[in-house]
Amino acid sequence: MTTLEICNMALSSLGHERRVTDLAAQTKEALLCSGWFATARRNVLSAAFWNGLTRRAGPFDGVPGADGHFRYPHPCGRGALKTEAVDALGRPADILAADRDGLTLEIPCAVFRVMPDAEDPEDWPHTVAAAAVAELAALIAYPLTGQRGVAADARAAARDALSRARAWNADLTRRHGEENRYAAARGAEGWT
To answer: In the chain, which ranges are E strands?
Structure first.
C-alpha cells in the first residue's frame, strides 16, 4: 500500500468522494493528507514493537559513569520512535535518561529493541497500514467535514483498528491449536 492509497482510503472511510492524485496538489484533501500523514504514521508505528519492522541491537557494554549508571550510544540512531532495553537475562531495564548523546541505564550490558520510523508503507504489515488509514482519517475528519460526530466516529474507528493491529502483532487472534479465523477471513478463505 502506498502513501497515496492510504490517503484515499482515509478519505473514503469518511464518506468523502473526492480523491487525491497528487499530495503536492493545492486541494483541501491533498493539503490535509500531506500535512497529517507523518503524524498518523508516527502515532501508529510508535504504538508497538511491530513484527517485521522492529530492529534489535547489541549486546552493548555501557560506559560506567561516576554516579554508578552506564552510558550507551543510541542503538539505532536517534530516529527511533520507540526504544526498549533488556538485561542479559531478558528482563526489561529502565532507561533512566535519553539525550542527544545517548542513553543512561543502571545495567552494565544491554540489548536494545528499537522501532524505527519506517517511512515507506510498502514495508508495513497490512494491519499496521489499516491502522494508519484509520488514524489519518481520525486526524483529518474534523478539518475536512467540520462535523464533530464524524470526527468522534473516526477516532473510535482508529482506536479499534490499532487494537486489531496490536492483537494481530501479538498473535492474539488465534487460540492454541485452532485456525486463525480472522486471518482466513482477511485472506478471502471465509469462515470455517
So the answer is: 55-61, 63-64, 70-72, 80-86, 92-93, 95-99, 102-105, 109-116
